[in-house]
Amino acid sequence: MSYPFKxxxxxxxxxxxxxxxxxPEGFWDGVASSFLWRKKWDSVLEWNFKDPDVKWFSGGKxxxxxxxxxxxxxxxxxxxxxxxxxxxPEGHHRVLTYRDxxxxxxxxxxxxKNNGVEKGDRVCIYMGMVPELAIAVLxxxxxxxxxxxxxxxxxxxxxxxxxxxxxxxxIITCDGASRGAKEIPLKNVIDDALVQCRFxxxxxxxxxxxTPVSMIKGRDVWWEDEIKKVETMGxxxxxxxxxxxxxxxxxxxTSGSTGKxxxxxxxxxxxxxxxxxxxxxxxxxxPGDIHFCTADIGWITGHSYILYGPLGAGATTMMFEGIPTxxxxxxxxxxxxxxxxxxxxxxxxxxxxxxGYGLGPIHGHKLDSLKVLGSVGEPINEEAWQWMHDxxxxxxxxxxxxxxxxxxGGIMISNMAGITPAKPTYxxxxxxxxxxxxxxxxxxxxxxxxxxxxxxxxxxxPSIIRTTYGDHERCRQTYFSTYKDMYFTGDGCYRDAExxxxxxxxxxxxxxxxxxxxxxxxxxxxxxxxxxxxxxxIVGYPHDVKGQGIYAYVIYDHPHSGDxxxxxxxxxxxxxxxxxxxxxxxxxxFVSGLPKTRSGKIMRRxxxxxxxxxxxxxxxxxxxLDPAVVEEIKKGRI
Length: 638
Ligand code: WT7
Fold this sequence. Notes:
The chain is of the alpha/beta class and 638 residues long.
């Protein structure tokens, strides 16, 4: 497969970026032309950021799976599309060629149809990292159903909230998932969620861990039985549903500064074009390369750079079921050598956790197949960057630091491997089609270099968020109302003297814990549900491995009676129940009051400083209702 849009030099990059700014429509018309469309678009772009209303490739008809599967069958039919490494290093790995993956997607698409799933229906997928997860996602796309993958670390309550919001009548799950030494009873969690969701009509359950599960007659069916039914139909074909470019492809829930996660909606045409375009260019993918993205498909990184981006490019993509530290901290390196991985795309938190084990686990590994390393999810600190560069890349692999978000669908700011220069801790330059701007609090654009501000994007790109499911006003409010005619990212950013961008972190009440996005309001709501809790406030603090840790200040009914540590565990348990283990507070400090202004607003700046260990220079505390609580909070710091 050749990529007519592939950038091959720094000059090429400059030209592409300039063209994309001068003539965005001409630019993307050209890129989109190398994809497979049933019908060409009538207009490349119609948009306003006021409503917002953004339409890319309007009138165009396509199916993304024809681009990810069918069109590769001729040339790449026998090439590996998906390589799966199981959690158990002794277990059997699996290799699915493009032909195999196509056949399995067709088969499962027919299973979905047999179970009543129709175009536009929302299907919730709650599975571990097994090949059938990829198959389920693509089968939904095949028939035009809207998939909504939920990460395996979310609780029953979180699932129920999402099912309700999406009104998903169909669920695809596994009996259980294996992660390191742990087994997660996925189907049991689903059963707990469904107590509240009587509208769910069908649950399709894949056998994987052989964990005992309950199967409700009339509602729950086994994946394997359903496949057999399709086989007895003589393995019929499943022509791809013809989709409008702007039909929804999927919903993915993500946290914001309010208590309720938002269903970010991406559409078929623009998302397809942008994920494949960015995949090929950022990683400089060459046919035959083995691409290993270590993310979970429950997050946007997995959607865009394990599945759609690579498959759109006819690449070989890897899926790993396990975790980097099990059975030991050499697991990633075993995988790299076993499959001769060329591109390794991972997260700073994983690197920092592996750094803690020293160089021992790397010894005995060649790692000489590696050509490109990538980082995503949070700012990468200089030390982790250098460690990765020296010890994993052996000084010869470019590292791409890719900044983007669930809402942006694909990588927005990043160097291109070996093409544009890297600069440690900088995401560096915008991709073609991306126009970043820094703005001050009043929304004035800050021009020039060596400046800081809030990061916004000026012009739409093909994979921009279209809406938040079921609540368009919320999408407008969150992303398009803070600054006029701009998409607001929620991140702070510095632009250096050469125009390189360095993301400095969120400026809203969103935490980034091990690359997972967690809303402080969500955690506070969960803590406040615990009996005895009167009020709470959550802030982030620097954490060596997780990037940010969760620090909770809690006003509790009987702070000094009973067993404080047990109460802490109870609160943690409540959070695990309501959100999931990923939102567990790292530290809980009991307080008798919170620093509030006279208007009742919690002064988080003070709480943040104390959590960070800064007890002097707390800034102006004169507007506080009760300055004495600050002294108490400082003394009780954990
Ligand atoms: C937030 C988005 C993008 C996929 C994974 C996370 C932070 C992401 C970087 C980076 C600095 C980064 C930002 C962003 N972030 N990548 N390379 N450097 N910060 O997606 O859960 O939607 O979170 O992650 O703060 O806003 P997400």
